[in-house]
Amino acid sequence: MTPPYSVLYMVMTPPYSVLYNKGIKTVVLSGDREEAVASIAKTVGIGSEFIRASLTPQLKSGVISTLQASGHHVAMVGDGINDAPSLALADVGIALQIEAQENAASNAASIILLGNKLSQVVDALDLAQATMKKVHQNLSWAVAYNVVAIPIAAGLLLPQFDFAMTPSLSGK
């Protein structure tokens, strides 16, 4: 049988590594005992300065408020009712849940990921970044098109080139 920490290492390390390589700092806020949280974080490679253990829901919210006050954008990943206040407070709240039923965490979250896998957080981030890239690309095309088409439609070319857009150009 595989030891639980080995399984946890295999589950947590790839998403953490991807986030780290993207320049995203990961902070562990947990209500569990400090020894357990420190051991898991050390196994995955999260430095002790980014670990907060034995936290109540109010203390988790306090840490998030402090991070936001110092200019950080905070995404909170949680899975239980004790994470609901922090999920609601964070800039982006991500609820992990095993089943499709609603709970307090999913009600407070901006994003709900079914399947309870940390790798889905990375997938959601990649999808959001690709979507924003496409939005910016589409806005650029729309602005460029309008910069060219609106003056033509308004008849700006008529005086210089004797060109006007008449209804007969529509092909009907």
UniProtKB/TrEMBL annotation:
One of its GO terms (biological process) is copper ion homeostasis. Keywords: Membrane, Translocase, Transmembrane, Transmembrane helix. GO terms for molecular function: ATP binding; ATP hydrolysis activity; copper ion binding; P-type divalent copper transporter activity. It comes from the Eukaryota. The chain crosses the membrane at residues 139-158. GO terms for cellular component: membrane. Pfam families: Hydrolase. The keyword DNA repair does not apply. Gene3D superfamilies: HAD superfamily/HAD-like (3.40.50.1000). The keyword NADP does not apply. InterPro entries: HAD-like_sf, HAD_sf, P_typ_ATPase. NCBIfam families: ATPase_P-type. This is HMA domain-containing protein. It comes from Camellia sinensis (Tea plant).
